[in-house]
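Input.
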Amino acid sequence: MKTSRRAFAFGLGAVSLSACTTGTGVLGPRAGNSAGASGGNSLPADLRPVPNAGYDAWVAAFRGRAAGQGISQSTLNVGFRGAGYLPGVVKRDRNQTEFSRTLEDYLAIAASDERVAKGRAAYARHRSTLNAVEAKYGVAASVVTAVWGLESFYGERRGNVPVISATSTLAYDGRRGAFFEKQLIAALKILQNGDITANRLTGSWAGAMGHTQFIPTSYQAFAVDFTGDGRRDIWSDDPADSLASTAAYLSRNGWTRGLKWGGEAGSGAPGGSRLQPQPGGPVFNVTSNFRVIKRYNNSDSYAIGVGHLADRILGGGPIRGSFPPDKYGLTKDDRVALQQRLTARGFDTQGSDGVIGPNSRAAISAYQSSIGVAATGDPSPELLARLG
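Output.
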């Protein structure tokens, strides 16, 4: 498979991380905001079907194309029963902002204290399954757990948007029509194979599914029935099939059993390529397994996030190297202090992880307005001193 599992990944990658920012994607909805693919039962109004004649005509034409690819009429009828055009899917697709975050910000979210603690608990709770997965596929149990943690917060945010509606809406919309029609065909084949019922075929707004957020074509190529019940059920509360499918994906993309992903240079990390994703920040030695993780999501920050979180789950400590001040001249400690001081003044930043996202910017703007200065939302050493 030439492309990443998340070929349509949002922003820096496609992860449901949780911290003090907002949005969808690798650093998707943060503290104070539900994940972009919430595990709850309710859906926003714009993610519920609305009448759309153009969409209906597109579906009518698509049925013929799907039948030509082996999709039965009964599967089409079941799959599209209750499906419809979701305006919120198009809105989210169109509003994706190209952005980049520093590695420091990324790791503050990807390996937050909460994510590490939950990861250690999940690793212990599912240790027998994870050991069996590692024994079969050769992929370190801690790495599989870390992917799980970044993709769905250990299953808490698997997504509840109907996949047929989401992928058909995006295929009809046309911006990436061919890609999403391929995902729609694959989703219908999942139904036809009996792996899941139509009402349980849910995922993110763009069709990524299950504990480790497979798109339908990757599900077809790599998902496995680890429990032996005859279904590759990555949607179940039991994460066994999802964890094994993730390991199968990494294994079939070249994972080397027993080889670490890498680590900070000088910290006993295995030899390999040297990488410094953030100028002035820590340097890492990375191995071929680092590149395999990037097949899951083609981002250096994502792969370091998975590897570092895996190390933390096993009891490792934080990154030891220092990061330079940000473009505003603030260190992470400065940013944490700024968030804490704003919140103490009644301008809630929804957490204090040192990541200046939309919640923090809104709090800064509100504070700036309250003192009669331009509401830029930008942090600064002067603002920090004034709050002191």
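Residues 6-40 have pLDDT under 50 and may be disordered.
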